[in-house]
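Supplementary Methods, section 5.1.

A reviewer requested that the exact input to the structure prediction be made available. We therefore reproduce it here, unchanged from the version used in the analyses.
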Amino acid sequence: MRFRLVHSAGREYGRSMKAIPLAPVACILVLLGLAAHLSLRAEDEKEPEPRKAPARQKWEHLALPRDASKPLSDPEFAKQINGFGTEGWELVTVLNFAKDGTTTKTVYYFKRPLD
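The structure derived from this sequence is encoded token-by-token as follows.
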């Protein structure tokens, strides 16, 4: 097979190409593809390393009982609750306790991380 190379000045260069047999090239490409596939598959089948459990946060807890007959707008109560927040306490939940259908006591539960 011959092809023509033409220089920008118009001169022609000629080279002959040797034919390369396709069967060995195709076999090599198939073998390379198979090797790549098998190596990727082997990596997928490796047993994953066990995950380490993260360190658990430890908490300190506080329960603040309060007579339900006292109003929530009590300035002393607001000052006490805000003081807990300043000290790092976080309000988690509030439970009301009732007797004969009337709330008699409210308990405020707080938590904060232990150092």
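The two ends are 82 Å apart (CA to CA). These observations are discussed further in the main text.
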